[in-house]
Specification:
It contains 3 helices and 7 strands. The chain is an alpha/beta fold and 146 residues long.
Length: 146
């Protein structure tokens, strides 16, 4: 499924819709270059999950946690991680993915370690504010954009 957005606000709205459909155990894996809008999209996911919009890039922290009453969103940056040892050093395997949601930036660096049911989101820059967002989810969310 492909969605084209024309502003950061539209990107947030698309992600908000997706976020409202996520459930505990979902893993989002982003693909997209620097400045593509991965953190902006995560802001929308957080809003859709009912966690507010106070989302920032996890570049230096490696992971940011956004906690709600019922669910937590773990937001990872794997830009500098490419081995299983590196992944272990981040504490990745210690997080409670079964009962929460995770969003992973630079997922291509750890693709072989992600679960089979991972939802892949590719964000391509078409212009200064225009993005093409491809959601690979096995058709799970297709009806949301009908």
């Amino acid at each position: 499924m492909k969605i084209v957005t024309h502003s950061p606000a539209e990107t947030i709205e698309a992600a908000k819709k997706l976020g409202s459909l996520l459930r505990a155990g979902d893993m989002i894996a982003y693909k997209g270059g620097l400045g593509a809008g991965k953190t902006t999209f995560t802001r929308g996911l957080a809003i859709g999950l009912g966690l507010g919009d106070n989302v920032s890039s996890p570049t230096f922290a490696l992971v940011n946690e956004y906690r709600g009453n019922d669910i937590t969103l773990y937001h990872f940056d794997m830009y500098r991680i490419s081995t299983e040892e590196g992944l272990e050093s981040t504490g990745f395997y210690d997080y409670d993915f079964e009962n929460n949601v995770a969003a992973v930036e630079w997922s291509e660096n750890i693709a072989q370690f992600l679960p089979k049911n991972t939802i892949y989101i590719t964000i391509d820059t078409l212009g200064e504010n225009e993005r093409e967002i491809t959601i690979e989810d096995g058709g799970r969310f297709a009806s949301a954009w009908d």
